[in-house]
Structures are given as C-alpha cells and as structure tokens.
Amino acid sequence: MRTTICEMFGVDFPIFAFSHCRDVVAAVTNAGGFGVLGAVAYSPEQLDTELTWIDERVGGRPYGVDVLVPGRIDSSVTDLGTRLADAIPQRHRDFVTHLFGKYGLDAREPLPVSLSAYADEVGRRVTAEGAGGLIDVALRHPIRLIASALGPPPPEMADKARAAGVPVAALVGTVEHARRQVAAGVDVVVAQGTEAGGHTGEISTMVLVPQVVDAVDVPVLAAGGIADGRQMAAALALGAEGVWCGSVWLTTEEAETPPSVRDKMLSAASSDTVRSRCRTGKPARQLRSAWTQEWDEAPESPGALPMPLQLLLAEGAMAGINRAAERGDPGARELAGYFVGQVVGQLNQVKPARRVVHDMIEEFASAVARMRAVTHDDAPAVPGGISFPPEDVEGRETTEV
Amino acid sequence: MRTTICEMFGVDFPIFAFSHCRDVVAAVTNAGGFGVLGAVAYSPEQLDTELTWIDERVGGRPYGVDVLVPGRIDSSVTDLGTRLADAIPQRHRDFVTHLFGKYGLDAREPLPVSLSAYADEVGRRVTAEGAGGLIDVALRHPIRLIASALGPPPPEMADKARAAGVPVAALVGTVEHARRQVAAGVDVVVAQGTEAGGHTGEISTMVLVPQVVDAVDVPVLAAGGIADGRQMAAALALGAEGVWCGSVWLTTEEAETPPSVRDKMLSAASSDTVRSRCRTGKPARQLRSAWTQEWDEAPESPGALPMPLQLLLAEGAMAGINRAAERGDPGARELAGYFVGQVVGQLNQVKPARRVVHDMIEEFASAVARMRAVTHDDAPAVPGGISFPPEDVEGRETTEV
C-alpha cells in the first residue's frame, strides 16, 4: 500500500499497533505494520531489555515507543516532593480495602493499604521527569517513532527526538488539541475517537478524523473503533493516512492480557465498556466491571483521585485482583478489568497478531473493491462514474462529477 | 451509484435525509436522494397538508415519513387516561418558571405553567395510538418508506405498511436491537451511532455499523457522524448500503431552524453537544445550552421526567424561549437549543439542500479514488494490488491478497 505514512515509516501497511507487550510489537512490525511499545509499565532498565529483545527479532524493520506524559500534573501531587503514594488519602485506601472485603478476596492477597515502592515508581514514570528517563533509553535503540499519549509532549522530549531524527506522534481527541500539538512540533497526529480504549475524549472517530485532517498539515492516523479491515477502510475514507489500533491486540496469542480479563473481552459486547476516571484519574474507556461500578455508582465511593494518584491506587489494587482472579477467586473476577475500546464486541477469537494484520488488509482490499463497484467504476464514460439527475424543480444547474 | 438500497428505493444516491421540514424533504428527493419527513410535530390533518405539498413537487420521486413511536410508554403516564399535561409534577413546572425568571425572559412571554391542549396533543402523538393516526394519513400518500425512530414499531404499524407495500425502517443503537427489529419484520435497519443528534445509544457509528451489517440480513443504513462525502464513503466502507443524515440539513437554506439556534449551530464545535434526557425524557444528543446545563447540573434541578412528559414540558417551554430569542432576548438565546449531532462542528455555512447532496457525492467519489490509489490500483500483477512481506521470523506462510 502507499500512503504518506507508508513512505515516511517504510512500512507495507499503515497499521500502527499500540501494545504493552513486546511480542505483539515485534509480530506486527514483522507482518508489515508498525509496532509501538507502551513504555509506562517499565523502568528504564526494563525498557532497555524489552527494546533489545525487539531489536533482535525485527531485523531492522521499523517500530516505536509510546510514553504517557501528562501535559499537567496536579500541583498538589508534585509539590509533595517525597513519595507519591503518601499523597493518597486514607479514605480512598479504605474504599479499596472495603471492596476487597465486599468481594471476598482471598486472605492470602495482601490488601493494598501500603502502596509500596512499586506504586511509587510507577507513579514517577508518568511525571515529566520519569518519562524523560524512558525517552533517553528509547533513543539509544533504532526506534522510528516516539508517541505521547496525553497532552503535548514536553519540549525536552520533542527536542531530544528531533536531535535523534525520530518523528514524534501525539494522540488527540479534539481539533484544538491537534492544532496545539502541531504547533508544539509534532510530526504525526493520532486522532482518537471516544470509542477507543484508554484515555479518550468525547468526539467519535467518524466526526473527529475529517476535522483533524482539515486542520493540520501533518499526516493523521485514525484511532478508536478500528479492529477490522472495513474500519481501516473507513478511516482512510475519512482522510487518515493510516490507523492506530490498541484493543485488537489484547486478544491475540502474543498478548499478556490476564486470562480472566481476556475471557471477559472475548465474551463482551460493545456496550460493556465505560469511560471512567476510576482507573487512572482521567477519563479512560475500559471494561465495565465491579471496580468501575463501585467507584462510579456506589454511594460510599470517595470518587476518583487525580492522575497519577488514582493510577497508583488502582494499579496496586489490580495487581492483587488479577493474582486472585487467576487463582479462580470469583469476587476478584468480578473486579478485574482493563482498558479496551468499544470494538471489544468484535473480539471473539484468539488469533496470532500476524493473522490480525493480514485479515485486516484482506478486508480492506474487499471494502475498496466493494466501493469501486458502488460507484459504477467498471462503467466507462463519466469521470468518476457518477452523474446527477437533471434539476427539474428548482431550476438549478446539473452537476456531473 | 448502485447499492441494494438504490435499487430498492429507486434513488440515484443512497442518501436519506431526515427532516421536519417539507422543503428539505422535497429538495433532497429531487436531488437524487430520499427525503424522510419527521411527522411528530404534526397533527394528522397537518401531515396530510405537508405530504400533499411534497407530492406536488417531487413528480413521483421517492420519499418517506418518520414517526416517533416509543416501544414502551411509562405506565404512570398512560394509566392516567386523561390529559398527559396533568401528569407533569408541580416541581418540574416550577423549575421551568424558575429558569424563565433566572434568564430574564421577557414578561410578554407567558410562563408555561398551564401546558394547554397544545402540549397535550403533542404528547398524544408519541403514543402508539397517536402515531397510528399519522401512519394512516401517511399511507394515503405515495410514500415509499415508514421509519420508526424509537424501539420496534408496533405490530399494527408494520402490518398496515406491509398491506400497503411500503417498507418499514427502524433506527437502532445496538446489535441486539437490530436483531429484534428484524425479527419484528423491519425491512431496513438504520444503525445509528452515539454521535448522532436526537435519541442515541452509546456505541459509535464506526463500531456499530459493521456489527449490525454482520448480524442482520436486511440492508443497513449508517447514521451518526455523517455530513460530508468522506463520512459517507466511510459508512459504505463499514458495510452500510447508504447513509441516513439529519443534522446536516438543519443549516440548509430550506430548513426552518430558528435563526438563533441556526447561528449557534454554525459557530458550534463538535464538543458543544451533549447527550441528555432534559429535552424528551430519553437520552438525546443536542446543543449544549443553558437549558441542558441547568437540568443536568444545577443542584435545584428536579431531574428529567420520563418520555413523553419531559418532551411536553420542554417543547412547551422551548416554544416560548424561541419566540423570545427571535426578539433578541439574551437570556432566551442562552436557553435555546435543538437536537444535533457531533457533526455540528462541520456545519459552518448555509447551503441549499441540493448543494449538500451534490457536495457529498463529489467528496464521496474523491474518497473512493483516493482509496484506489492507496491500494496501488493502477499497478498490474497482484490481484487486489497488495502483497504481504515474506514471513521470516515465525515461519508462517506468506499470504497474498
């Protein structure tokens, strides 16, 4: 295929695969797409190990890294100076303890009341300082893209990437954000609709993408609602140069999605997601679960904390919940969940990531062929194959395309 | 163009235009599309007048009628037996009076405290009985489609339409509803995404349409997020046989949108809509306004009543608000609003409806041409023009499409 994006990144297919799993990243890159490793879960040392693993497998084919850099951190958090975990109010810790009790989590599972150095470090990674360390590591590998999932990337990030000749991409949910990102020097805009998994705005992909395409002069990838080739064709029809997919990889063979969560995804309908602050502190689409319902609807819920405090609290709790769920604990299975988009309703089968790419391209080709047929593309004569009926009522001109 | 829908309805372009304005309906039908008149605002006698007007202008070209038939009416409403307006609690009337005072509505505007025979009649029209009268009138005209905007059409409606040889369409927001509608005998499903104006579900068009196409064996129209030819091309890429558009006609020359509301629409961004119960009692996307903010966010708000009581109350109030807004009353302009989808961000110019149709088709043809170029469609050799890179890592087969 040829789009600006294919030429810019040297890929066969303009399919960008966001995943926290190195196996998915390598598989998609090797299938002709472009894998993007979500780096937030790693320390700089771990990230170095993951990228080395990928380098050894992709034979120089292109891949990238995504860091989660919030544009603003709540000042009450950064002003503390010491351990982020200390900023989590007792009332919120107590609510998690209450949930663990209410859902009968196995007593072997330590309650997440002391949030530990682990949580503290995860929290630091989503600060500008923490993300900076990850970016330095990433740029020592032959990456071909750095993406920023939240807000404009810090100027240092753009500067470092530019010095290394690595393009920068940013996810946006509004036209205004897209303009701001391009003004901040971003090379590729990912226009992400509300139907996407993870942090999203409120505007749908169908509405957002053409407006972003019209507003900026850099290539646009479409994200949100894209898990098959018909949706990829729709994204390109809207004016995008390629697609950015996340949810579809979560049920691939290569993904490290906890089995209990993967099973929920395989059986979920598109109406089984919710956009909630209860996992990170910012609105993020995820599976509806006892966790989301309790935080969002229970009268005793203290409400979500700001980013990154809610992320710390939720990830600390989810680590325990997932362990308990894998042991078969029914209450833990009710609480377990993960970020996923509305396309979860289409994910009914575990497939290799390479097969997902190939199926998507085959369906894409079929969709394009179908659209050619709709426009009488086999008929000769009229350019474009479409003629308008004569104007016989209001006396306006006849137009031919 | 040729799709199943084009053949089924004898139209040049599979563009269905939902509008409450007969001028829009006639203009779109005469431009090669298919106009659908929203009948809820009319009495049976008025509807007869409107359809006669259309018949005299479209020269036998196809058009249809849309009725608003809720699948269920709150029993506390229908059990009253007498006047629907009497079922509106004093607390809700008082809140409207409070809003009229707070926003300084001109004293010449009578407060909507006694909701009158007008409201009572509007209410009756959205009951099964009321809609039945409209359907009888519609079937005496050469209509080619009856659409039901809410829930499965009552069996009497489907039976009458079938006896008259008129296909029935229904709007759906989930796959489950699509299956239920087809089981109830519907001939065309309109899969409507959450980004649409008016009554909508939560699933986006991008996600909903392919799932509905796979689930039912009748033609599917896509609705929600469609106001230009790129979006129409996307809809067809998703597997729809055509598009159903509502919002885009609201800013056409022919529309009867109140000028103050039209001006708001022309300057609104896609983020300026909200899905709220405050206008009809069911979640409906509309312009964000002082009306939506007060009902949804003010501490003193009594909350929306069930359909159709909230519709009565809101339409009664809006009639006064619109009159005051047209006199230039600034508070009334803050309160004024109307149903519209997220595409409102694209509506920046008043155009004739015929021009909207032609622009859409021209953009559609360009989008299809662009997609052909992406797939190397001019290159010979490989069928479909796409080949996959060799599998050199995991040892799986090479696939060619």
TrEMBL record, chains A, B:
Keyword Ribonucleoprotein found: no
Family matches, as PANTHER family: 2-NITROPROPANE DIOXYGENASE, MONOOXYGENASE RV1533-RELATED
Entry protein name: Putative monooxygenase
Keywords annotated in UniProt: Flavoprotein, FMN, Monooxygenase, Oxidoreductase
Stretches for region Disordered: 380-401
SUPFAM superfamilies for this protein: Inosine monophosphate dehydrogenase (IMPDH)
GO molecular function per UniProt: nitronate monooxygenase activity
Keyword field contains Lipid metabolism: no
